[in-house]
Design a protein that fits this description.
The complex is a heterodimer of chains A (about 290) and B (about 150).
Chain A lengths: L6 E3 L4 H11 L3 E4 L5 H6 L7 E4 L9 E4 L2 E5 L11 H6 L1 H6 L6 H6 L2 H7 L6 H8 L2 E6 L2 E6 H4 E3 L2 E2 L6 E8 L4 E9 L9 E9 L5 E9 L6 E2 L1 H7 L6 H14 L10 H26 L1
Parallel strand pairs in A: 1-3, 2-3
Antiparallel strand pairs in A: 4-5, 5-10, 6-7, 6-10, 8-9, 11-12, 12-13, 13-14
Helix pairs in contact in A: 9-10, 10-11
Chain B lengths: L1 E6 L2 E6 L6 H8 L18 E4 L2 E4 L12 E3 L11 H8 L9 H14 L5 H7 L11 H16 L1
Parallel strand pairs in B: 1-5
Antiparallel strand pairs in B: 1-2, 3-4, 3-5
Helix pairs in contact in B: 2-5, 3-5
The chains are: A alpha+beta (about 290), B alpha+beta (about 150).
Bound molecules: flavin-adenine dinucleotide and FE2/S2 (inorganic) cluster (2 copies).
Chain lengths: ~290, ~150
C-alpha cells in the first residue's frame, strides 16, 4: 500500500518548522512518529499535500521535571516515558499507562504529543491527560499559547489547534499533596487499542481528604471522556469503598460505548464500572503509601 | 529527492520519491531482501530494522526521514562469522519458515545490548510487537536467551 504523493519538508529548527507551517496553512501537516499518520495515508484516510517532518527538531526530544510540572517535548517518544524516574515521581497515572500504549516498536517511534494531537478516542494518552489536568503548549510563528487539555480535545480526531500551529510541549502539573493514579486498560492483545480503559488520579491532603480527583475514559465515546460529575463527587470527601463505588457507577452511566469487534456495549460499560472502582482503589492505595 | 542512509556501516544513496517507505528503499533501491514485508499495516514486525540502534517498523517510516541516520538490517548481523543470535536461533530451532526471524533477531540484539541475561518475561515483552505464526515463541525466547549467554561468555 502506498500513500498518495506529497511534498516533504524537513526543517532543522523549530523556527523553520513554524514558518513552513505558517506558509502552508491548511495544506501542511506535521509528521511526528508517523505511527498513526502513515497508516492513515496508506489507507487513503488522509492525503496531506505537504508533510513537515519534525523528527530533526531534536531539541524537542525531552522529558523533564520543570518547576511545578512535568514537561514532555513534542519529539519525546512513547518509549521515553516508560520507566522514567521523573514521570514516576510526578505522574503515577502516566507511569501506569506508558507500557500499555501500542507495542514496543511503535513506542520507539510514536510520540506522546503526536498521540495527543491525533485525538483518536481509542488513544490512551488523552484520557491520562484529562484525568491529571494537563495542558498543551501550541506554538506558531506568531507566538505561543497554553491550552488546557479539556479545550484541546474537541472531538473525534479533532483538536483545537489553529492553522499554522503545532504542539511543542505537554505539561502535567505536579500534585499538591500525596498523589496516586492508575491506567487500567483492557486489550485483546499487546498492540491493540483499548476495548475500554480508565485513567484515575487522586491527590490527598495530609488528613486524607481528596483535594483533587481525575477520571477519564478511553474508547467508549466519540472522544476521550472526562467524567466531571464523578470527579466533583470525590473532591472534598474522605475515600471509602462506597464513595468509589458511586463514582464508578457515574462513570459507567456517563460513557456511550458502541458494540464492535472488541465487545458489546453493555460489556464495555461493565468494564468501565469495574475498572473505575479498581483504578480509584489503586490510586488511593498508592497515595496513602506515598504520604 | 536524494536520501543517504548508512546501512550496516556503509553509506548508501538513492534518489527517491518522498512517499517511498523505508522498507522499500531497503528492499528495492538497495536490493537487500532480508527485511520482510508482512502485514504492511504496522502490526507484525516482519519489517523491523534498527534505526540508530532502536528497533522500529520500516513499513511505517519514510526513507526520507531516515536521511542521515544509521540503519541496521539482518544482513548486518554476520560479521565474518555468524552472530551469536544467528547461531542460537539455528541451535535452538528458533525459526520454522523464517519470515519473522530477521525482526526477532534484531529486537533480540537491541534487548541483549541492554541486558545479556533477560528473563522469559523480559524477552516476551521485548518481542511483543513481532508476530510469529510458526514457532509458538518458546524457542525464540530460548534462542535470544542462549545468545545472551554466549555473548556474556565471550
Ligand atoms: C500497531 C499500532 C498499535 C497502536 N496502539 C495504540 C494504543 O494501544 N494506544 C494508543 O494510544 N495509540 C496506539 N497507536 C497509535 C500510536 O500511539 C501513535 O504513535 C500516535 O497515535 C500518534 O503519534 P505519532 O507521533 O506517531 O504521530 P503521527 O502519526 O506522526 O501524527 C498523528 C497526527 O497528529 C498530528 N501531529 C503529530 N505531532 C504533532 C504536533 N507536535 N503538533 C501538531 N500536530 C501533530 C499529525 O499531523 C497527524 O495528524 C498504535 C499504532 C499502531 C501502528
Ligand atoms: S510489515 Fe511492517 S509491521 Fe508488518
Ligand atoms: S518462523 Fe514462521 S513466522 Fe516465525
Amino acid at each position: 500500500m502506498y500513500p498518495p504523493a506529497f511534498e516533504y519538508w524537513s526543517p532543522r529548527s523549530l523556527d523553520e518548522a513554524l514558518s513552513k507551517l505558517q506558509e502552508l496553512g491548511n495544506d501542511g501537516r506535521v509528521l511526528a512518529g508517523g505511527q498513526s499518520l502513515i497508516p492513515m495515508m496508506k489507507l487513503r484516510l488522509a492525503a496531506p499535500a505537504n508533510l513537515v517532518d519534525i523528527n530533526n527538531l531534536t531539541d524537542l526530544a525531552y522529558v523533564r521535571a520543570d518547576n511545578g510540572h512535568l514537561a514532555i517535548g513534542a519529539l519525546a517518544r512513547h518509549a521515553d516515558v516508560v520507566d522514567n524516574a521523573d514521570v514516576k515521581a510526578i505522574s503515577p497515572t502516566m507511569a501506569s499507562a506508558a507500557p500499555w500504549v501500542a507495542d514496543p516498536l511503535v513506542r520507539n517511534r510514536g510520540t506522546v504529543a503526536g498521540s495527543i494531537a491525533h485525538c483518536d478516542p481509542e488513544g490512551d494518552w488523552n484520557s491520562v491527560m484529562l484525568a491529571v489536568g494537563a495542558s498543551v503548549v501550541a506554538s506558531s510563528s506568531s507566538g505561543q499559547r497554553v491550552i488546557p487539555i479539556g479545550e484541546f480535545v474537541v472531538d473525534f480526531f479533532t483538536n483545537s489547534l489553529d492553522e499554522g500551529e503545532m504542539v511543542t510541549e505537554v505539561r502535567i502539573p505536579r500534585p499538591a499533596g500525596a498523589a496516586g493514579g492508575a491506567y487500567l486498560k483492557l486489550e485483546r492483545k499487546i498492540g491493540d487499542y483499548a476495548t475500554a480503559a480508565v485513567a484515575t488520579f487522586l491527590d490527598l491532603a495530609g488528613d486524607g481528604t481528596i483535594t483533587n480527583a481525575g477520571i477519564a475514559l478511553t474508547a467508549v465515546a466519540s472522544k476521550n471522556l472526562k467524567v466531571t460529575e464523578a470527579e466533583q463527587l470525590l473532591i472534598g470527601q474522605t475515600p471509602s469503598d462506597e464513595l468509589f463505588g458511586e463514582a464508578a457507577a457515574i462513570a459507567a452511566r456517563a460513557c456511550d460505548p458502541e458494540s464492535d469487534v472488541r465487545g458489546p456495549a453493555e460489556y464495555k460499560r461493565a468494564v468501565i464500572n469495574a475498572y473505575t472502582k479498581r483504578g480509584l482503589d489503586q490510586a488511593f492505595a498508592q497515595a496513602k503509601g506515598g504520604s | 529527492m536524494k536520501v543517504t542512509v548508512t546501512i550496516n556501516g556503509t553509506a548508501q544513496s538513492a534518489d527517491v520519491e518522498p512517499r517511498q517507505l523505508l522498507v522499500d528503499f531497503i528492499r528495492t533501491e538497495l536490493g537487500m531482501t532480508g527485511t520482510h514485508i508482512g502485514c504492511d499495516t504496522t502490526s507484525c514486525g516482519a519489517c523491523t530494522v534498527l534505526l540508530d540502534g532502536t528497533p522500529i517498523k520500516s513499513c511505517t517510516m519514510f526513507a526520507a526521514s531516515a536521511d542521515g541516520h544509521e540503519i541496521q538490517t539482518v544482513e548486518g548481523l554476520k560479521n565474518g562469522e555468524l552472530h551469536p543470535l544467528q547461531v542460537s536461533f539455528k541451535q535452538n530451532h528458533g525459526l520454522q519458515c523464517g519470515f519473522c526471524t530477521p525482526g526477532m533477531m534484531l529486537v533480540g540484539k537491541a534487548l541483549l545490548e541492554k541486558n545479556t541475561s533477560p528473563t522469559d518475561d523480559e524477552v516476551r515483552w521485548a518481542i511483543s510487537g513481532n508476530l510469529c505464526r510458526c514457532t509458538g515463541y518458546t524457542n525464540i525466547v530460548k534462542s535470544i536467551q542462549a545468545a545472551g549467554a554466549a555473548i556474556e561468555g565471550n
